């Protein structure tokens, strides 16, 4: 049984935007990444899956149960992109509150609180939440999402406030959750994070899913060719710009996006322009290359998401 299944799931707003006809399958014990440009519908989809928004069409199953099912909701954890906690509480008091909401006993909450605070590196942090740094609050949010030991965890930008060391710690934590048999649904704008830990991804644009599958399949779409040339004349530059206006030239090494079937024509045009061509080979594409090629530079709709993705 899949962790998440959606069937033409739709959530549209009166003013426009949202997501439509989303059909996804997220397997158990995998880290699944959701990607998309600003306003693509990512946050709407996540909020619909966790039960914060009511769909306007289609249906979905969460851990084999329909959306809104109380038993299923007790088995999921959620870290929203934007959250604020009562500044007068301590970390343990906040977790005790979340444990009670999840139906845990006091003893269970006490044990789980200690475990998750240790997991996110906050076990020895004293004081009230109001004194916490932004990164500490982000870690505390992760602890809240995990306190009930969920089977399925939704994380919306879990590393947005963390420094590189903190991001690495979260990556290791997510891989540990996967090793424990849990499923992680990750919405992130840090493409490098997604590339490092996700098993499969979905790309959403304009509210619709335009790709779903393994990262290797998405990276195969980044069609980059590397050329080693002799002297690069203006005529050669014009040929390169014809095939890819955004080509990159470093010394005499050229990298450009070009479809495989266009490579022979590119070579012929370069030779005709007087280029000395020493090498032609495929260049390793990055997730950023694949993403830009797939969705372009535009977004779609108004969803309240972050600005365009980046790979910092």
Summarize this structure as a short list of keywords or feature phrases.
Rossmann fold, Alpha-Beta Plaits, five-stranded antiparallel sheet, 15 strands
Structural description of this entry:
Helix 3 crosses helix 4 (106-119) and helix 4 packs across helix 5 (134-146). The protein has helices spanning 42-49, 70-73, 91-101, 106-119, 134-146, 164-179, 191-197, 215-219, 234-243, 263-272, 287-295, and strands spanning 4-12, 18-22, 25-26, 31-35, 57-62, 65-66, 76-79, 152-156, 183-187, 200-205, 208-214, 224-229, 248-250, 253-257, 277-283. The protein is built from eleven helices and 15 strands. The strands form three sheets. Strands 7-8-9-4-10-11 form a six-stranded mixed sheet, sandwiched between helices. Strands 1, 2, 3, 5 and 6 form a five-stranded antiparallel sheet that branches. The protein has 312 residues and is of the alpha/beta class. 38% of the residues are buried. It is elongated and about 80 Å long. Helices cover 34% and strands 25% of the residues. The chain folds into two domains: 4-214, P-loop containing nucleotide triphosphate hydrolases (Rossmann fold); 224-284, 2-Layer Sandwich (Alpha-Beta Plaits), CATH 3.30.70.
């Amino acid at each position: 049984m899949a962790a998440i299944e959606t069937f033409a799931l739709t959530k549209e707003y009166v003013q426009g935007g949202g997501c439509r006809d989303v059909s996804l399958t997220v397997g158990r014990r995998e880290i699944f990444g959701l990607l998309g440009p600003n306003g693509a519908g990512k946050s709407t989809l996540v909020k619909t899956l966790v039960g914060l928004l009511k769909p306007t069409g289609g249906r979905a199953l969460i851990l084999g149960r329909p959306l809104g099912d109380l038993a299923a909701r007790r088995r999921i954890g959620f870290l929203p992109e934007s959250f604020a906690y009562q500044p007068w509480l301590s970390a343990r008091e906040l977790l005790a509150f979340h444990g009670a909401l999840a139906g845990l006993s006091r003893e269970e909450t006490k044990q789980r609180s200690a475990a998750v605070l240790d997991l996110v590196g906050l076990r020895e942090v004293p004081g009230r939440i109001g004194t916490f740094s932004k990164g500490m609050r982000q870690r505390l949010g992760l602890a809240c999402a995990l306190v009930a030991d969920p089977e399925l965890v939704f994380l919306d930008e879990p590393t947005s406030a963390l420094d590189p060391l903190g991001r690495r710690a979260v990556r290791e934590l997510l891989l540990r959750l996967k090793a424990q048999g849990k499923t992680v649904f990750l919405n992130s704008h840090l493409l490098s994070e997604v590339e490092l830990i996700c098993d499969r991804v979905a790309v959403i644009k304009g509210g619709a899913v335009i790709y779903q599958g393994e990262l290797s399949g998405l990276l195969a779409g980044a069609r980059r060719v590397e050329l080693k040339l002799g002297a690069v004349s203006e005529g050669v530059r014009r040929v390169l710009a014809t095939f890819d206006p955004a080509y990159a030239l470093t010394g005499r090494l050229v990298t450009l996006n070009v479809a495989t079937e266009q490579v022979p024509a590119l070579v012929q045009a370069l030779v005709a322009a007087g280029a000395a061509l020493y090498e032609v080979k495929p260049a390793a594409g990055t997730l950023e290359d694949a993403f830009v090629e797939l969705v372009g530079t535009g977004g779609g709709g108004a969803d309240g998401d972050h600005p365009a993705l980046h790979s910092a």
